[in-house]
Design a protein that fits this description.
By secondary structure, the chain is α+β, with helices and mostly antiparallel strands. Helices cover 17% and strands 39% of the residues. The chain binds 2-oxoglutaric acid and manganese (II) ion. 2-oxoglutaric acid binds next to strand 8, strand 14 and strand 15.
């Protein structure tokens, strides 16, 4: 399904993996990925980011953002299998995946665009959701138009074209209890 928004090209596939496959994948990745609790430099202080992360890439590409460098691991066979399925569907090549683990409702990611210089202009970002459903918000940087999409387990969100240039996105904290969620964002790092 196409999400129709100005200056964006966003596709949402609700059942990219069915419920059973999504739950198996969640359990496997939850147990086996090398989850790290990284620090971010904020106002001169090192503070823990509100989620766990793991960075996997071909060719040992490291990943720098917000003053952190994530050390790369080679993709596991399961990540490779997921990458292949997403590449086939999207007709796009990826060479890296950032995994996020939101342990509960207090974990989040703040407003940002996936606009790191290493991703080039108009990057294609494919984002697979597993575990609990979480709200994903988008905000246009000029008009401030805001939309909320609920990302269901097994769903795939593909952002293309100028999306990262005009829109920021976030996963907000919530006050009601929410179970863990894993998100895999596949990217193509150019150098
Ligand atoms: O968890 C999500 O759906 C989004 C994660 C994200 O925006 C990122 O890792 O850049
Ligand atoms: Mn992002």
């Amino acid at each position: 399904m196409k999400i129709t928004l100005p200056d964006a090209d966003i596709e949402y596939v609700s059942n990219f993996y069915n419920a059973e496959q999504a739950s198996l994948l969640f359990n496997d990745l939850h147990q086996k990925l090398l989850w790290r609790h990284d620090d971010i430099l904020m106002f001169g202080k090192q503070i823990k980011i509100p989620r766990l992360q793991a960075w996997y890439s071909d060719n040992d590409l490291s990943y720098r953002y917000s003053n952190m460098t994530l050390e790369s691991q080679a993709l596991t066979p399961i990540l490779r299998q997921v990458q292949r399925k997403i590449s086939e569907y999207s007709q796009h090549e990826f060479n890296a995946v950032l995994a996020n683990l939101y342990r509960n409702q207090s974990d989040s990611v703040g407003w940002h665009s996936d606009d790191e210089i290493e991703l080039g202009t108009n990057p294609v970002i494919a984002s697979l959701s597993l575990g609990a459903e979480r709200d994903f918000q988008l905000k246009h940087i000029k008009t401030k138009e805001k939309v909320t999409l609920a990302l269901a387990p097994g769903s795939l969100l593909i952002m293309r074209g100028t999306t990262q240039h005009y829109w920021q996105h976030c996963i907000p904290k919530r006050s009601r209890n929410i179970m863990p969620r894993i998100n895999l964002t596949f990217r193509k790092v150019l150098y």
